Amino acid sequence: MVILSVVDIVLLIAGLAFYLYIVGSQLNRIATNLEECAEIVRTIVGHAEAIKPGVEHINRTGGVVAGALPLLYSMAEGIVAGVAPRPAQPAKRPPARPAAGRRRSRLHDAVGYQPGNGAVSGDAKPDQQANLVIG
């Protein structure tokens, strides 16, 4: 029984050693990649330092232009409004018509009402009765 316990402990230690070896090799690979990334970042920072004054100047100029855009826009609208030809207005405007023709209420269909007497709402005389379909 003691021998099996010793074998189990040795196998456990061997498994842990193998696991630590794998993890250590992966960490070494990650460290190498991070060193390469750090070198690339240093190169980028060096390049950025060279162009930083130019970028700051461009940003200042862009701010001035952005501040002037509303004024330029309103001036351009004034120019276009003054130059664009205006169509002649007709002497008398015709009455407005609905785009799709005369509207029809579907509520009448829902309750079975059929306006067959030719009366328009408000024009009906007391002796005229609306046709009501019950069925």
Overall helicity: 55-70%
Which spans of ≥5 residues are poorly predicted at pLDDT below 50? none
Q: How many strands?
A: 2
- The sequence of SSEs as H and E is HHEE
**Average pLDDT reading:** 81
Number of helices: 2
What is the terminal separation in angstroms?
Answer: 98 Å
Measured by DSSP, the beta-strand proportion falls in under 5%
Structural class by sheet pairing and helices: mainly alpha
Name the overall outline. flat
- Major sheet size, sense and barrel closure: 2 strands, antiparallel
> Biggest sheet: strands side by side, in what order?
1-2
Instruction: Supply Rg.
Output: 44 Å
Keywords: Membrane, Transmembrane, Transmembrane helix
Transmembrane segments: 6-24
Region (Disordered): 84-135
Describe the structure using short key phrases.
about 140 residues; mainly alpha; two-stranded antiparallel ribbon
Topology of helices and strands:
Layout: H1 2-83, H2 107-111, E1 113-114, E2 131-132
Antiparallel strand pairs: 1-2
Region (Disordered): 84-135
Transmembrane segments: 6-24
Keywords: Membrane, Transmembrane, Transmembrane helix
